[in-house]
Amino acid sequence: MSTMQEVARKAGVSKATVSRVLSGKGYVSEETRKQVFAAIEAAGYRPNLLARNLATSKSQCIGMVVTNTLYSGSYFSEILSGAAKKVEESGRQLILVDGKHSAQQEREAIEFLLDLRCDAIILYPRFLSIEDLDDIIGETRQPIMVVNRRLRKHPSHSVCCDHKASSFNAAQALIARGHRRIAFITGSPDSPTALERLAGYKDALRHAGLPIDPQLIVEGKWTPACGAQAVRDLLEHDIAFSALIASNDDMAVGALKQLNAAGLTVPEQVSLLGFDDIPVAPFLHPALSSVKAPVTGMINEVINRLISMLDGGDMTPHKDFTCGLILRESVADAAAPGK
Questions:
Q1: How many beta carbons lie within 10 A of that of residue 324, not counting itself?
Q2: What does the pLDDT read at residue 338?
Q3: pLDDT value, residue 101
Q4: Which pLDDT score is estimated for 148?
Q5: 61 and 274 in contact (C-beta within 8 Å)?
Q6: Contacts of 322 (CB under 8 A, 6+ apart)
Q7: Which of 96, 60, 67 is nearest to 310 (CA)?
Q8: Do the beta carbons of residue 150 and residue 159 sit within 8 Å?
Q9: Three-class secondary structure of residue 91 per DSSP
Q10: How many whole angstroms separate alpha carbon 121 and alpha carbon 110?
Q11: How far, in Å, CA of 151 to CA of 137, rounded?
Q12: What distance in Å separates the CA atoms of residue 233 and residue 241, rounded to the nearest whole number?
């Protein structure tokens, strides 16, 4: 691999001049810059991509920050694969960076992508607040789009799914089938999506004139093991319920296994419903009812907006995406009293 010294020799300049050209810091005449870039290409110097980025101010890359705790599950697999496909179709490359375990680390991931001179950035944040996100967008030259968070100052820079309304509709569908004691397994308490789904469930109960019983609400953390443990907790405390909503399908799978282990049949004794419509949902026994978010549509909208911003297009806020309720064999009418 060629060295910076060889590039300097070919360009007829000092190594320090090559360094200034590559870093973009310090004055270098336009003629000298062109000589250095030509020497870089001729020498096959490794940072030639960076050199072109500095020369054109375009990297043809879009960065994406996702916290590693969100990597698992089909929902995020669909997000990542959809983003990669859509970015590639635009003639660009997707660079994925881990947001790790704190707001500061999410900030550092964003700064890393900015240092790489990514043309635009997609954020699926876990820890940064709405205020943080609005400030970052206001301070950053590169276009930024945020997935699944509603921004106050920059609403056109976010794309959201109405998880609250989707959960409301799911609970309402169970109520319409005669269910009055509906248990609910939450997602992680620090997740905005989990909080919206819990709020929608509570609103549906209020709308139907049903009490909100704290004993029917069990905290989970998105995994099948949490779903199974939630069912164990409900049964060990002798809490009666005819239907169960899990905040994602993974927890619903764990709940289904534990209900079967306890001798409770689905849906004859307990109707079961989840979120995300994982690929195996139709193939479970019974087939799992679920709420499906339009993940591909959301990601396409995000990247279309970024490309529009890069091309100088106008931005207008998009109304929230809506989820679809898919009722399968795991949901049935509530059993009549005494049966």
A1: 12
A2: 41
A3: 85
A4: 86
A5: no
A6: 161, 162, 165, 166, 294
A7: 60
A8: no
A9: coil
A10: 8
A11: 10
A12: 12
Structure token digits, residue 262: 């306890």
DSSP 246: E
Q: How far apart are CA 151 and CA 160, in angstroms?
A: 10
Average pLDDT across each block of 10 residues of the chain; the chain has 339 residues. List them in order: 76 86 76 86 65 58 81 73 86 88 92 88 91 93 90 90 95 97 94 93 98 97 95 97 96 97 97 95 97 89 86 69 94 74
* Preceding peptide of 267 cis, ω within 30°: yes
Cβ neighbours for 183, distance < 8 A, ≥ 6 positions apart: 216, 217, 218, 230, 234, 239, 241, 243, 244, 245
| pLDDT for the residue 306 | 87
> Beta 324-326 vs 289-292: how paired, if at all?
antiparallel
338 phi/psi in degrees, rounded to 5: 90, -5
* 242/257 Cα distance (integer angstroms): 16
29 Cβ contact list (under 8 Å, min separation 6): none
Write the DSSP string, 260-316: HHTT--TTTT-EEEEES--TTGGGSSSPPEEEE--HHHHHHHHHHHHHHHHTT----
- Taking CA atoms, 328 is separated from 190, 215, 254, 281, in Å, by 30, 27, 18, 9
Radius of gyration of the chain (CA): 26
Strand, helix or coil at 100?
coil
Residue 128 buriedness (CB in 10 A; 0-12 / 13-18 / 19+): buried
- In angstroms, the CA 115 to CA 69 distance is 24
Quote the CA–CA distance of 92 and 339 in Å, as a whole number: 61
Cis peptide before 286 (omega within 30 of 0): yes
Backbone φ and ψ of 173, nearest 5°: -65, -40
Reference 49, options 120, 117, 143, 142; nearest CA is 117
**CA-wise closest residue to 287 among 333, 261, 246, 256:** 256
Residue 195 tokens, joined: 């909080």
